[in-house]
UniProtKB/TrEMBL annotation:
PANTHER family: CONTACTIN, PROTEIN SIDEKICK
Pfam families: fn3 (PF00041), Ig_2 (PF13895), Ig_3 (PF13927)
Residues covered by the Ig-like domain: 21-115, 119-210, 215-303
Region (Disordered): 404-425
One GO term of the biological process aspect: cell-cell adhesion
Record field: compositional bias (Basic and acidic residues): 404-422
Iron as UniProt keyword: no
GO cellular component, one term: membrane
Protein name: Protein turtle
Residue ranges occupied by any Fibronectin type-III domain in the UniProt entry: 308-404, 462-557
Length: 633
């Protein structure tokens, strides 16, 4: 309970003010400040609380200021919560946070940034630096500056050096000197002096720059090694130092920075052996030779054959209102005899489900993805696959489609005629008519309406009175158009399930003027659940769920029809077989009779002792019509 406070003046009770305990609240928070090195800085942090036993804690980059070694002797926290640093140093720049609490509720916090500026200064001066003869070399000047460095002056052998007017010398952005091709004239004693907006804190010490010959390779690895999965590879490398220099060290590394597999790699001197090669071993390996003068590198490519494709790279996307055109460079196919095809995976940013699109024609490295929503951000990945399986996914590429000029139709005009009235569940003027949006079409003229990933924008009312009717050759699903905002409908979809997940029934989009869909067959004895979804440009509405138990008689009818059909087919087959046999027998009998008659005619002629005056090759039963003229000699 709170406590009351009474105020009495001239014997009269004037007012009673109740008070309640509460957590600390920051009344005056710290603000960002910029100071010159050596100045004093104060960060206020005034808090109020009930009870007023407020504790203030200050931290820098998450570490209590009393535990920061460089601040320990220069920092004070006053009783009112103010943080004082006197004097500030260049290392004090950072984010400071005050946290207040009186033990009630959660602590309150506020933060501010301290920016400490100072003249440019040299932080480190190496006494000796080396330049590799006839190679590129750098003489470094280690500088720290806030605000940023403006320029650096150099001296060589106590004389001003003009690098901008000297051949083979370039001043780098950090103030160091780059020698594009080192010669003996570049040897000498150098100093550097950095400057920024606050000037300089002085020059560096003298740096002795010596020109020496770099180490050289005595044995180089081959440019390329080709091996199959599971095999091993040996790569050899060796080098020697120049006179007057130290012996170089030889190490191996991958160019992409991936660590070498320790359990499968053996390094002996400058030689490396990788056993049990895998797809991940594909890449460039570098033999690195280094001493105080220079570091030289020799690269070798390791190709591992017989693997799934490597990830495509350099993916670019060009967006329009409703589509994105993707192009990419193919990764290694997995072997010289393996061809790879591609699949695009994409999703609307923020959606967890990815959608696949096979790339056609096979092997193509570009594709146009249609049916996208204007002014929407999409994520794309490309994966290659060959006969061994799917390869590695590419990096995700983010592309945003352009905003449609026609995506924001004008609102309903007050004087609109009946033909163009906007339909709404209320008489709001904020409902927009999407009937006049111009969508793209494909090569056949079919409108490409983008799919809806996440509903947004105006949506039609729900379809009504979903029913399923059995007809002679199948089933018809019918429904009635929505009563509200039916003009927004772009197409319908029908979803169904028989106990599992919802699936899409229709293959293509159902036009908004259609109110029925024909199904050839449903499984008898099962119960189907149907929903009709009405889609607008960016949203949808679903009908009530309709449950339809398919009668078991449908299943029996199908079985009966199958049995009857089988019997009829069997009978027809028997009849055709009998007819075929009879026809064959009849033809065979005719051929036999013809052959018999020919033989009989010849025997008769031989008995008569002469030839017939004319041909008499007629069947036996027709021989009565044949006449003979015989002459006796």
């Amino acid at each position: 309970m709170g406590k009351g406070k009474s105020v009495i003046a001239h014997g009269s009770l004037l007012q009673c003010i109740p008070t309640f305990p509460g957590g600390a609240i920051i009344m005056v928070p710290p603000t960002n400040q910029t100071k010159l090195e050596g100045e004093k800085v104060s960060f206020p942090c005034e808090a109020k609380a009930m009870p007023g036993n407020v504790t203030v804690r200050w931290s820098k980059e998450g570490v209590p200021v009393k535990e920061v070694g460089s601040l320990e002797t220069r920092v004070i926290i006053r009783t009112d919560g103010t943080l004082v640093i006197n004097p500030v140093s260049s290392d004090d720049s950072g984010l400071y946070m005050c946290e207040v609490s009186n033990g009630i509720g959660d602590p309150q916090a506020a933060q501010a940034y301290l920016n400490v500026e100072f003249p440019a200064k040299v932080t480190f001066t190496p006494t000796v630096q080396y330049l590799p003869f006839r190679l590129q070399g750098v003489v470094q000047c280690h500088i720290k500056a806030n605000p940023t460095l403006q320029y650096v002056t150099w001296t060589k052998d106590k004389r001003l050096l003009e690098p901008y007017q000297t051949k083979d010398i370039v001043v780098m952005q950090n103030g160091s000197l780059l020698f594009t091709r080192v010669n003996q004239n570049h040897q000498g004693r150098y100093t550097c002096t950095p400057y920024n907006a606050h000037g300089t804190q002085g020059s560096s010490g003298q740096m002795e720059v010596l020109v020496r010959k770099p180490p050289s390779f005595t044995s180089k690895p081959e440019a390329m090694y080709q091996r199959k999965v599971g095999e091993s590879v040996d790569m050899h490398c060796d080098a020697q130092e120049a006179d007057g220099t130290q012996k170089p060290t030889i190490t191996w590394q991958r160019r992409d920075g991936v660590a070498l597999p320790k359990n499968r790699v053996k390094i002996s001197g400058g030689n490396i052996t990788i056993e049990g090669l895998r797809r991940v071993d594909f890449g460039y390996y570098e033999c690195v030779v280094s001493n105080e003068v220079a570091t030289i590198v020799q690269a070798a490519q390791l190709v591992v054959e017989g693997t799934q494709p490597h990830a495509p790279y350099n993916i670019t996307g060009i967006a329009t209102e409703f589509s994105v055109n993707l192009e990419w460079l193919p990764g290694y196919s997995g072997g010289p005899d393996l061809k790879q095809n591609y699949v695009i995976w994409y999703r609307e940013q923020g959606n967890k489900d990815w959608l696949p699109i096979p790339v056609t024609p096979p092997g193509s490295t570009q594709i146009t993805i249609n049916r996208l929503t204007p002014a929407t951000t999409y994520e794309f990945q490309v994966v290659g696959k060959n006969e061994l399986g799917d390869g590695m996914l590419s990096n995700i590429v983010v592309v945003k489609t352009k905003e449609s000029l026609q995506e924001k139709p004008t609102k309903k005009p007050p004087q609109a005629d009946d033909e163009h009235k906007f339909i709404s569940s209320s008489d709001d003027d904020d409902v927009l008519d999407y009937r006049f949006i111009s969508f793209p079409t494909d090569s056949t003229g079919v409108t490409l309406i983008p799919p809806v990933f996440r509903p947004k924008g105006p949506k039609p009312g729900p379809p009504r009175n979903v029913t399923v009717t059995e007809v002679g050759n199948g089933f018809v699903i019918s429904w009635m158009s929505p009563l509200e905002r039916a003009n927004l409908i772009q197409y319908y979809l029908i979803k169904y399930r028989t106990g599992g997940n919802w699936k899409t029934l229709n293959k293509g989009q159902i036009r908004p003027e259609e109110n029925s869909y024909f199904i050839k067959s449903l499984v008898g004895g099962r119960t189907y659940h149907f929903r009709v979804l009405a889609y607008s440009v960016g949203s949808f509405e679903t009908s009530e769920e309709y449950k339809y138990p398919v009668p078991a008689i449908v299943k029996q009818r199908a079985i009966t029809a199958g049995v009857v059909g089988g019997i009829l087919f069997f009978i027809v087959a028997i009849i055709l077989s009998v007819c075929f046999v009879k026809i064959c027998n009849k033809r065979k009998r005719r051929r036999q009779e013809k052959a018999y008659n020919m033989v009989a005619c010849r025997i008769t002629d031989a008995r008569n002792g002469g030839q017939l005056p004319g041909p008499c090759q007629v069947p036996l039963k027709k021989r009565g019509n044949c006449s003979y003229n015989l002459e006796l000699v």
